[in-house]
Every structure is written in C-alpha cells, then in structure tokens.
Automatic annotation (TrEMBL):
This is Phosphoserine aminotransferase. Catalyzes the reversible conversion of 3-phosphohydroxypyruvate to phosphoserine and of 3-hydroxy-2-oxo-4-phosphonooxybutanoate to phosphohydroxythreonine. It comes from the Bacteria. Pathway: Amino-acid biosynthesis; L-serine biosynthesis; L-serine from 3-phospho-D-glycerate: step 2/3; Cofactor biosynthesis; pyridoxine 5'-phosphate biosynthesis; pyridoxine 5'-phosphate from D-erythrose 4-phosphate: step 3/5. InterPro entries: Aminotrans_V_dom, Aminotrans_V_PyrdxlP_BS, Pser_aminoTfrase, PyrdxlP-dep_Trfase, PyrdxlP-dep_Trfase_major, PyrdxlP-dep_Trfase_small. The keyword Cytoplasm applies. The lineage of its organism: Bacteria, Pseudomonadati, Pseudomonadota, Gammaproteobacteria, Pasteurellales.
Length: 360
C-alpha cells in the first residue's frame, strides 16, 4: 500500500508509535485481558493512568505547581461558554482580541453571559498580519483578556504574547498546544481541544491557575464549574477514557522524543521547508505575513477555484489527504501538526511541483 499522509486540520493524525501501542494493548491493557475502554474510570489502574498523565503533561510543558490540569469534555466550544461562566463577574466585562474565525466565535458565545468588548487585531491588506499586541493601558478594566494564538482556518499564528499588565490572559491553544515552548506563567488559563496535537476528538485540556478556581457564578452548570471538576479529578461524570488514555500515550511519546525543545525544532523545520517552496513559486500563493505564518496550518491557493479543486482531487489520489481549505476561506490548507513527519512535507512539495508544471 502506498504511503498516505494526512493533512487534516482535525481530527488530525496521531503519532504512528502511539497508534501501534494502542493497537497492541487494545484487547489486553495492563494485563487485565480487557480494553482500557472497558475498565472503571474510578478503578485503581485508570486512576493511576490519569494521575500520571497530569504529571507527564506538567513535566512536558513545564507547568507550575499553582496551575491545575483538567481533562474535560465539550471541546473548545464548550470552553467558549465555560470561561465566562467561571471568570466573568456579574457586573464585569471581558476583552476579546479577534484575529480570525475562531476567536470571533469565542467572543460571540461569551456575549451570552455578559458585557464583551472586542478588538480586531488582524490587518487584512494584501497580506494578513497582526501588529498591535500591547493592551496594557486598558486591560486592567477587564475580568480577563481572551485571544487565539493560532487560527486554523487562515493559517495566522501569533508568536508574541499580548501585553495585558496584571490582567488575566486566556488563550485558546486548540491548534498549537504542545507545538513549541511557552511560558505558562504568563497565562491565567489555557484551553485546547485534543484533536490536533494532544489525542483524538472528545476530550479537552484546561490549564488554569489556582486563584481563578472558585469564581464560578451560582448558575454555572456543575459540569462546567472548574472548582467542582478540580475537586473530582475531572471525573464528576464518566470521562472519555479512551481519549484520555491516548493523550497519556502522546505525552509519553513526546517526552521520549526530547520534549518541547525538540518538537519546536521539528515543527519549525517542516514549516520552513513548505513556506520556502511557496515563496519561490509563481503558481501558488500564501497571503499571511511572514511574522504571522502558522507552524501548524499552512494555507495556499492557485488563485482559481477550479484549479484548486483539481489540485485537491489529484493530491488525494496521490495519497496526500485532506488538503481542501476550510469552506470559509477556500483554497488549500496543509495542517502539519506534531505527528506530521518531514517526509510528508517532502511528498507534498514533490506533488506541488509536478502539478504546477502540468497545469501552468
């Protein structure tokens, strides 16, 4: 069978070593002669797995001890609502920095719970770029400031952390979590759907500072209350145990590969290879400013819808899957998360070269 490379924006590819281990253990986990999906989440073995996964993620991301790690459900969209329910005071307001579709969607959801100010930080000229990230002069008036450091649809990534003084900074890192080193202490809360770099769809990571727990409104549903979830070890109901198990395997795998420093270099190398090819091409175009080009989601187009559709169809036939751009933007999108090997980028470039020569 020919090699297939999966460029899906999510659910995305998982490390092959992790899938192989899961396959080996599927019918006999921990010598129990049963699957991890069939054991009690409150049993000794799964509780040990859950605790170890927290320790491994803390080590991997250098998460300070005054932060809690929660494994929740509902995806990032669930957190769009949970965050204002937990952090937005009854008469307070929050600031949302919007740079694309997902940050704007988060702001829209938050308005259901209180007063939200929104500042669009994305400049849309001949290229997409983010310039001003200094909000230290206004941030103090807000209960928190929210932003999305990587927009999967447009391929815009914000590498510098917004300046918000002593205000609480909240980040939706669904599509770039664990892709590079960050200073967790500069954030009050980080959240991420698992289906890009962490594991399969169905589980969500929330990293939240201790002093932000216990602020939830009285009307907050129990399942969205961070204090309740913390006190229950993220198990007030049955968690998605198989998804949690796979996340635990991913954390072990990343640690074995050299951790965040090694992963950041891996991702920078992949992105540079693809962007360098796009920059020298007259056939394909990327419209994101160099300082905001995502390491995770590389968008490009031929400039012609019919040609784009032909590219996607022929790429799929060649074993390069899920390159169709999001319906909001069109064109093509290569999502090159942690699990994508450099060989996948090389195969994509080889195809792009062949396609351009045949269709110029």
């Amino acid at each position: 069978m020919a090699k297939v490379f999966n460029f899906s924006a999510g659910p995305a590819m998982l490390p092959s070593a992790v899938l192989a281990q899961a396959q080996t253990e599927l019918l006999n986990w921990q010598e129990q002669q049963t699957s991890v999906m069939e054991v009690s989440h409150r049993g000794k073995l799964f509780m040990e797995l859950a605790a170890q996964s927290v320790d491994d993620l803390r080590q991997l991301y250098n998460i300070p001890e005054n932060y809690q790690i929660l494994f929740l459900q509902g995806g990032a969209r669930g957190q769009f609502a949970a965050i204002p329910m937990n952090l937005l005071s009854e008469n307070g307001k929050a600031l949302y920095l919007t740079s694309g579709y997902w940050s704007a969607t988060a702001a829209k959801e938050a308005r259901l719970f209180g007063e939200i100010d929104e500042i669009n930080i994305l400049e849309q000229g001949h290229e997409l770029k983010v310039n001003n990230l200094d909000f230290s002069d206004i941030a103090a008036q807000y209960d928190y400031v929210h932003y999305c450091p990587n927009e999967t649809i447009s391929g815009v990534e914000i590498f510098d952390i917004p300046k918000v003084g002593n205000a609480i900074l909240v980040a939706d890192m669904s599509s770039n979590i664990l892709s590079r080193e960050i200073d967790i202490s500069q954030f009050g809360l980080i959240y991420a759907g698992a289906q890009k770099n962490l594991g399969p769809a169905g589980i969500t990571i929330v990293i939240v500072r201790d002093d932000l727990i216990g602020r939830a409104r009285n009307t907050t549903p129990t399942i969205w209350n961070y204090e309740v979830q913390k006190n229950a070890d993220s198990m007030i109901n049955t968690p998605p145990t198989f998804a949690w198990y796979l996340c635990a395997l991913v954390f072990k795998h990343l640690l074995s590969q050299g951790g965040m420093k090694a992963m950041e270099k891996h991702n920078q190398d992949k992105a540079k290879l693809l962007y360098d090819y796009l920059d020298q091409s007259d056939f394909y175009h990327n419209t994101v400013a160099k300082q905001n080009r995502s390491l995770m989601n590389v968008t490009f187009t031929t400039g012609h819808d019919e040609l784009n559709a032909k590219f996607v169809a022929e790429a799929t036939a060649a074993g390069l899957h899920a390159l169709k751009g999001h319906k909001v933007l069109g064109g093509m999108r290569a999502s090159i998360y942690n699990a994508m090997p450099i060989e996948g980028i090389e195969a994509l470039i080889a195809f792009m070269q062949r396609f351009s020569s045949e269709n110029s």
